[in-house]
Amino acid sequence: MIAGDLASSGTRQIYCNRDTAGLCGPQSGVIAYAIIVTSGGNIVGSDIFTCDSFFNNYRPTAQAICPSSVDNLPWSQGGIMLHELSHATAGTTDVAYGCNTNRNLQHNDKFRNADNYQCLALHNFRLHNC
């Protein structure tokens, strides 16, 4: 659903530096978030909002990602966006954050945890680009 951005997952907009829900304060730790609209248990729309910190703090280079162990991969803008898109298209949740924590999740939680998609993408980047 994320790769195809299927029409069945609704329509969405991605907003830069817009904080409609007031979640992006400097002490909040929020980088980006998704607001999801459902009807009958299905996602019919969703919007993604990025905070200022998304643009200031999460641009690791390949030199930062390549030597990192899988458990300590740095977050990236692409990975964070993938995390939010998994919420917006597949209705994932935040069971746990960080690749080191995700490894120990129960089987069903691994599929519904948004951060697992970010970790998978960063791990694949390491495998094919380092």
Walkthrough of the structure:
GO terms for molecular function: metal ion binding; metalloendopeptidase activity. The chain has helices at residues 52-57, 62-65, 77-90, 99-102, 107-112, 114-129; strands at residues 11-16, 32-39, 42-50. With 130 residues, the chain is of the alpha+beta class. The protein has one domain (14-129): Collagenase (Catalytic Domain). Strands 1-3-2 form a three-stranded mixed sheet. The chain is globular. 27% of the residues are buried. The model has no long low-confidence stretch (mean pLDDT 85).
CATH superfamily: Collagenase (Catalytic Domain)
Number of strands: 3
Secondary-structure-derived class: alpha+beta
Largest sheet: 3 strands, mixed
Along the chain, the helix and strand elements come as EEEHHHHHH
Radius of gyration over all CA atoms, rounded: 15 Å
Q: What's the CATH class label?
A: Alpha Beta
Low-confidence runs of at least 5 consecutive residues: none
CATH architecture: 3-Layer(aba) Sandwich
CATH topology: Collagenase (Catalytic Domain)
* Estimated share of beta-strand residues: 15-25%
Number of domains: 1
pLDDT averaged over residues: 85
Q: Percentage of helical residues?
A: 25-40%
Spatially, the strands of the biggest sheet line up as: 1-3-2
Q: Sum up the overall morphology in one term.
A: globular
Terminal CA distance? 28 Å
Give the count of helical stretches.
Answer: 6
